[in-house]
Amino acid sequence: MICRSEFMVSIKLFGGAKEIGGNKILLQDKDAKIYFDFGESFNFGEDYFYDWLQPRKANGLEVYFEFGLIPKIEKLYDEEALKFTDLEYQKPDVDAVFVSHSHSDHIGHLKFLDGSIPIYLGHGTKRVMDVYNKLYPQFACYGKHNTFSTFKSGDKIKIKHLTIEPIHVEHSVPGAYGYIIHTSKGPIVYTGDFRLHGPKSSLTKDFIKKAADCKPYAMFCEGTRMESDSEKNFTEKEVEERAGSIIKDSKGLVLVYFAMTNVDRFMSFYRATVKNKRILVIDTRMAYIIDNLREKITDLPDVRTDENIRVYYKLSKSRTFCEKDYKTFEREFMERRITYDEISKDKKKYVVHSGFNKLMELVYLQPKDADFIYSSSEHFLEGENNKDELRVLENWLMHFGIKFHMTHCSGHVCKKDLIETVKTINPKLLIPIHTHVPEDFKEFHDNVMIVEKGGEYEI
User: Fold this and answer.
1) What is the mean pLDDT of the segment spanning 279-298?
2) Rounded to 5 degrees, what are φ and ψ at 52?
3) pLDDT class for 208, splitting at 50, 70, 90?
4) How far is the C-alpha of 224 from the C-alpha of 171, rounded, in Å?
5) Within this chain, do residues 269 and 361 fall inside the same structural domain, yes or no?
6) Residue 291 and residue 451: Cα distance in Å, rounded?
7) End-to-end CA gap in the chain
8) Range list of β-strands (E), 48-106
9) What does the alpha-carbon distance between residue 108 and residue 132 come to, in Å, rounded to a whole number?
10) Which long-range CB contacts under 8 A does 301-309 form with residues at least 24 apart?
11) Can you give the CATH number for the domain in which 201 is found?
């Protein structure tokens, strides 16, 4: 155990060490104590929970502590979350939590933190979190917090003697940031999740330049794709071109799937659809997301007026399309409404955003000579835990004679660009996180610290 002194800077990772996701990085410097992200790992709870076997929300952290799924840390968690545990509630001693972006592996456990701890995050990140919480309150709850402080790139935030500088990066969700933390020993860089092969790569290049200019003595660097041996790093532009080619050659309805908050991917399919003189059909939830993000991302089309977009309405419980049968937020897009009946009359006219949970609509659409474009993480197609869902998807596509295609590029930096990023920033100490293979960083950096989950390290 480290004996802390007034002049020591130390780190402790409660997640994100030798794993992808689940980032929980504690930085302590003198009397300052801040976390960077507080996420849920991708395989969280899979050894103990399955399907409907899940912890009861009313019991807070009781079951999570039982199985060691969340670190038992004093002076951190909400009093209600600790109600049925053996950890006594104490007033928090954490000065702040800084969020890099809105993916659950970076914010998933914010809901357990004491509400008095200030949360700092990008203005775009806050908007995405609010939108998802509105649409999926049971899955996207981020808890009750007294203070949400939003920032933009270039702001400088003072936490006691520390200065934290957020800088935008490109990722597969808007509002992603890396950080430069000015500590008593010098600058520390935290990359968050980033990439260099999308339409907003200039954001990441700006971050890399500023990180290099500050000459950091330490850097937390994500390495999601460090173990990838793929020779080809597809760009967002190539995804758009491939999608356009499939749409152009299709003789029937085109179905597509991509993550709803991936606005770069949305724009790729929007442009590919318009170029091929078709109409992009999205559901009411995606319409709500795009509509609410337009204020922050001004190049997004207006789903309320754009003639290249229609909003799909499923049959309501009354088996009608009566406005009163839909939720309040859904009614906002009624003027752009389209139903299966209209699409069925001219299937070659449309590209429809679909997915596993929307397969039932194929019964009504009755596609013929259709194409399905999967444009999201390969994890669904390759993951061991998704075999049953993949089997069901394949059966549906086979039943309707739908041809499957895949075109995707990652939200994470490729290995080649990652190596170049580390060499450019050139920290004195490199700390690989968000990766299964931290040892591989030693191939191109002389001073790499391999950290273990729960271990405390002086840096």
Assistant:
1) 96
2) -85, -5
3) very high
4) 12
5) yes
6) 42
7) 14
8) 96-98
9) 12
10) 301/270, 303/333, 303/336, 304/332, 304/333, 304/335, 304/336, 307/279, 308/270, 308/273, 308/274, 308/279, 308/280, 309/270, 309/279, 309/280, 309/281, 309/282, 309/336
11) 3.60.15.10
Q: Are residues 143 and 99 in the same domain?
A: yes
Decide if 128 is inside a domain: yes
Taking 60 as the threshold, does the pLDDT of residue 231 lie above it?
no
Report the candidate in 244, 235, 234 with the shortest Cα–Cα distance to residue 199.
235
d(CA 188, CA 172): 24
Q: Do 126 and 173 fall into the same domain?
A: yes
Pair (248, 383) in one structural domain? yes
**Average pLDDT score over the chain:** 93
**Percent of the chain surpassing pLDDT 90:** 84
One domain for residues 129 and 91: yes
Residues 195 and 85 in one domain: yes
Q: Residues, the chain, total?
A: 459
Q: How far apart are CA 424 and CA 224, in angstroms?
A: 19
Neighbours of 46 (CB within 10 A): 11
The domain in which residue 55 lies consists of 9-228+411-458
**Is 337 in the same domain as 196?**
no
The answer to whether residues 190 and 203 touch, using CB atoms and an 8 Å cutoff, is no
Q: How confident is the model at residue 390 (pLDDT cuts 50, 70, 90)?
A: confident
pLDDT above 90: residue 160: yes
Q: Do the domain assignments include residue 3? A: no
pLDDT of residue 384: 63
Residue 1, in any domain of the structure:
no
How far, CA to CA in Å, does 37 sit from each of 183, 222, 339?
18, 13, 41
Estimate to the nearest angstrom the gap between the alpha carbon of 357 and the chain centroid.
19
Number of domains in the chain: 2
Claim: this prediction has a pTM higher than 0.90 = yes
Instruction: Provide φ and ψ at 4, rounded to 5°.
Output: -75, 145
- Model pLDDT, residue 256: 98
pLDDT at position 52: 86
C-beta atoms surrounding 318 within 10 Å: 9
